[in-house]
Amino acid sequence: MHETSRLRGRSAALALEGLLLVAIVAFAAYLRLANLRDNPGWYTDEATHLEIARHAAEGRTQYMAFNQTTLLVARMPVFPWLISRAMLAFDLYGADSILAARTLSALLNTLAVVLLYAVARTATRREPSGRALALVAAALLATSKSAVVLSRIAFSYNLMAVLVLIMVWGLWLYLDSSRRRWLALAACAIGAGIMSDLLALNLLVPFAVVILSRRPRDLLWSVPLALVPFGIYAAASLLTVPDAFLYDLRFTLGRMGAGSFIMQVPNVLINFVAFVMLLDIWLLPGVVGLFLLRPLRFQRLALLVCWLMIIALQRTVGLSHLSFYYFISVLPLLVLGTAALIVRGVPFLTATVSGGLRAVFSSWTWWPEGPRWRWLENRAVSIGTMLVVYMVAVHSFLFFSVFTVYEVTNGLETEIDKVLLDPDDARAVARVANEMAAPDDVLIVSPTMGWLLDAHVADFQMAVTALGKKTEHLPGDIPADRYLFDARYTTANYVIVDNLWRNWAADNMEEVGAMMDDVEANWPAVFTAGDIVLYRNPARAAAPESP
Questions:
Q1: How far apart are CA 448 and CA 443, in angstroms?
Q2: Which residues contact 156 (CB under 8 A, 6 or more apart)?
Q3: How many CB atoms lie within 10 A of CB 514?
Q4: Where are the domains positioned within the chain?
Q5: Fewest CB within 10 A of the end CB: N or C in the chain?
Q6: If we measure between CA atoms, which residue out of 154, 212, 221, 166 comes closest to residue 192?
Q7: pLDDT digit string (tens) for 217-249?
Q8: Which residues lie closer than 8 Å to 546 by C-beta, 6 or more apart?
Q9: Partner residues linked to 172 by β-bridges
Q10: What is the mean pLDDT of residues 69-79?
Q11: Residue pair 154/98 in contact by the 8 Å Cβ criterion
Q12: Rounded to the nearest 5°, which phi and psi values hold at 497?
């Protein structure tokens, strides 16, 4: 009888856990998918993937004016290919293809919520608080403002987050069981990650450290396995476009190196301060909470992966301005740390507050004795403790969750709003530009809306490099055969200036600023929508006026 009751209780607990997980995942999906196409505004990095994807769908390797490989602009093939598949699966093309890309990104981030639960539940299955930790971690990732915003923009790092979690899962199971199949799973995740973004090469460091601590000889086959996808990609590129591939690889790896080690140290320190000060309230405690994870072996694994990735990102990228989205890949681990802090901290807080309130009652010499007064004291202590725990650990979580729901419905505010394009304005300008421009005309335009245009498009950095000058993200000695057409703005038919030019490009690249000043001063504006202006080159043949 006792055994039957125990089994029933276990089944009920599992059923409740499953229902809570379903509710969390459903809520995560709503926050990521609702009102998705135009909320938030369009960002340049997602548009680069979309531009590559639309050409890939037509069998071409092209990014705006560049051909042969996309490695020059630090884009690997997997994520754009997935976008092209999403366009096909959802039947979304043309101006609607942005929704396909964003839906893919949102679904990947929702999958990350499920995987975070699975990783935490697997690693802490012998811990009394394991179930609570897994559910709290999933709930925090589902509702984190940072995670929600970044999942709604088509970043390849949302795929990276999934692959990092799979790698951590595989490494933990390998540590726990010594079975090589789990190490193979982790290696395959890294391999897929490298084909999504070369930053995943940094994952080889914690991967190797874990193997060295467990069975060093497994390095001999697991590291090559992780590099197989890139090896196939490199071999195919060397057979077809060897010069372009080697040029792009050399330049891109140089960008990732970001100078000497001594030069990188200040960058790490500056970025760390920005990281601590600017991340949202639910992520900052994760820095501390990772140290509270149990068992200790899992704690060390999570710390190793998270901090090595953070350091790798901080040494290469200026994160204090626009680039916190690089952290998408480690957000789940930071959220896991926050969950550990909550799960471990709430019992401590409860005991401390309860003990303090009882001490207060004990110090009141005037407080009457007797069962009725003792009952009242117990109720007061219980209610007071619950109120304090609610205000500290629950209230802000609920507040931010409700506020996020409101923003998803009415418009999200982000840290990068000043460089996001208003989708309605972008579509209006693109419609006019497509009506005015011939297919062989050249337009200089932000990557953010280049994918909407039917003519030849180059971005403002390509317009600079075509003159033999380097930019923030491109070298100045790009071979001439890498350009599909003349990308100089002086010979272009049209230039489209938007808030990305004004609020970032012109401030960070002197040549772009000079180009924008020349265009705005000397070229006639033929159409304007919001902050986006279409200019026609007065030196080119007259074109039909805007309808």
A1: 13
A2: 49, 76, 78, 79, 196, 197
A3: 12
A4: 2-340, 421-536
A5: N
A6: 166
A7: 999 999 999 999 999 999 999 999 999 999 999
A8: 432, 435, 436, 526, 527, 534
A9: none
A10: 90
A11: yes
A12: -105, 130
Contact of 46 with 155, CB cutoff 8 Å: yes
Amino acid at 381: V
pLDDT over threshold 70, residue 442: yes
- Rounded Cα distance between 419 and 532, Å, is 12
Q: Are 485 and 456 in contact (CB under 8 A)?
A: yes
C-alpha 429: how far from chain center: 29
Work out the average pLDDT over 93-119. Answer: 93
| Mean pLDDT confidence for 323-336 | 83
Question: Which tens digit of pLDDT belongs to each residue from 508-530?
Answer: 888 999 999 999 999 999 999 99
- 415 touches 324 (CB < 8 A): yes
* Residue 154, burial from CB neighbour count under 10 angstroms (0-12, 13-18, 19+): buried
Closest by CA to 547, choosing from 424, 390, 436, is 436
Tokens linked to 277 = 């000060």
Among residues 4, 28, 42, 23, the alpha carbon closest in space to that of 530 is found at 42
**pTM tops 0.85, yes or no:** yes
Q: Which residue bears the tokens 């531009």?
A: 51
Mention every residue, 6+ apart, whose C-beta is less than 8 A from residue 32.
106, 107, 109, 110, 148, 151, 152
Q: What's the DSSP call for residue 326?
A: G
What is the length of the chain? 547
SS (H, E, C) 237-266: HHHHCHHHHHHHHHHHHHHHHCCCHHHHHH
Residues 6+ apart with CB under 8 A from 237: 69, 244, 245
Interstrand relation of 442-444 and 456-458 (parallel, antiparallel or unpaired): parallel
Residue 106 pLDDT: 96
What one-character-per-residue DSSP string does 438-455 give?
-TT-EEE--HHHHTT-SS
Least confident of 222-236, 365-379, 437-451, 471-485: 365-379
Residue with tokens 């497509």: 434
CA distances (Å), origin 132, targets 124, 136, 139, 386: 10, 6, 10, 18
Q: Specify whether the CB–CB gap between 75 and 83 falls below 8 A.
A: no
Pairing status of strand 494-497 against strand 532-536: antiparallel
On whether the CB atoms of residues 294 and 341 are closer than 8 A, the answer is no
Q: What is the pLDDT of residue 76?
A: 92
Identify the burial level of 65 via C-beta atoms within 10 angstroms of its C-beta, where 0-12 means exposed, 13-18 middle and 19 or more buried.
buried
